[in-house]
Design goal:
The protein is built from six helices and 14 strands. It is of the alpha+beta class. It has one domain. Helix 1 packs antiparallel against helix 6. The protein is globular, with a radius of gyration of 23 Å. The structure holds 2-acetamido-2-deoxy-beta-D-glucopyranose (8 copies). Keywords: Signal.
Length: 278
């Protein structure tokens, strides 16, 4: 009997800790939007989730049609983003199409409530300017030289991760470059296959409390000689511009990961109470 009671209260303790450390986020149906018709999604529910961030995502293709998604995720914890942040990203394809997106990540219960004013403000606080044709011209040709000459360099402390594929580099067909958002190391290498549909992907994180901006992820695929060298990367980076207006967004104060959620005092007392039963 005592043992049963013990395991029961232990179970209760686990459940309580789990409940108290979870986050409440809105989750809605994904909807189609255009830049001139931002609307609020339907079918929203408040959910207790086992995730780190509540999110609101807006993605637009060719500055025109796209989607809006309200959900939750865990993906970016490894970057040490312990405060609310907005991730901005631009993707340029070799056929002239492009896509840009922004995801608002926040850490307190119900913080991704899909209010139209907030969604508009999020969108209005963001500028993504780009000269798509110049970017493509810098990186891509329909008649590439084969073999292609690519830069082969990394300052990563784990070069094996950079040159993971094909050390002999038999015949280069695609030059690649990436900048790691955690270590800030660059990696320049080549591929022996043609992988050129996405030429550029650049994501940056805008920390809302400290107002710090970090490189989150940068990837480049190209097929012009030495197009993955640092000078070429610098030239490409001058062909687009991001800006996030910290003074406009967010409308409310932002939160720390530690401050977290719910009725912390209630959870704490309840845990103490169960703990005492042991
Ligand atoms: C705006 O978007 C909503 C939701 O996608 C749609 O129902 C509505 O018809 C659109 N309005 C216009 C004017 O395009
Ligand atoms: C470019 O390619 C993407 C798929 O990679 C496709 O969805 C898009 O429609 C294409 N755009 C043009 C302008 O051909
Ligand atoms: C966002 O910008 C649009 C058009 O530029 C404007 O109509 C709207 O009022 C703005 N919304 C907010 C919340 O700033
Ligand atoms: C590229 O660099 C790596 C690491 O320095 C080296 O092992 C490899 O042989 C190089 N490949 C070529 C073709 O220079
Ligand atoms: C690697 O090189 C790039 C470009 O020169 C530089 O911005 C970055 O700080 C370097 N990273 C490390 C870890 O040395
Ligand atoms: C901003 O980020 C850099 C690099 O991640 C870090 O060294 C610096 O301390 C950060 N500044 C603030 C105010 O958090
Ligand atoms: C957050 O903003 C809303 C209006 O957008 C306001 O009603 C609310 O009181 C604000 N909350 C805080 C904590 O400032
Ligand atoms: C959030 O964390 C910062 C340090 O990272 C601290 O200075 C600040 O007081 C914290 N904010 C709250 C509301 O606890």
């Amino acid at each position: 009997m005592m043992i049963l009671l013990h395991s029961l209260s232990f179970l209760l303790l686990i459940l309580t800790i789990k409940y108290c450390s979870s986050l409440i986020c809105y989750e809605c149906n994904e909807i189609v939007i255009t830049s001139s018709n931002l609307t609020t999604p339907s079918g929203c529910t408040k959910m207790n989730v086992d995730k780190t961030y509540c999110t609101i995502t807006i993605v637009l293709h060719n500055n025109d049609i796209g989607y809006l998604n309200v959900e939750s995720e865990t993906a970016h914890q490894a970057f040490g983003y312990n405060e609310d942040f907005v991730l901005l990203g631009l993707t340029v394809k070799n056929n002239g199409s492009y896509e840009y997106g922004l995801t608002y990540h926040c850490l307190t219960d119900g913080c991704n409530e899909p209010k139209l004013s907030k969604i508009q403000l999020l969108f209005n606080s963001t500028i993504i300017d780009h000269y798509t044709n110049n970017i493509i011209h810098e990186l891509y040709t329909i008649t590439p030289e084969i073999p292609l000459i690519c830069s082969n360099y990394t300052n990563s402390t784990t070069p094996d991760k950079c040159f993971s594929h094909d050390h002999k580099r038999a015949v280069c067909v695609t030059c690649v470059a990436s900048i790691d958002g955690i270590t800030n190391s660059v990696c320049m290498d080549c591929l022996t296959t043609s992988d050129l549909s996405t030429l550029l992907r650049d994501e940056r994180a805008y920390m809302l409390k400290t107002r710090n901006t970090t490189n989150h992820n940068f990837e480049l695929h190209c097929n012009k000689p030495y197009c993955n060298r640092m000078d070429s990367i610098e030239r490409v980076k001058h062909l687009y511009r991001y800006n996030f207006d910290y003074d406009k967004f967010p409308p409310n104060s932002t939160s720390n990961l530690t401050l977290y959620n719910k009725n912390i005092i209630f959870c704490f007392i309840f845990i103490l109470f169960i703990w005492n039963k042991f």
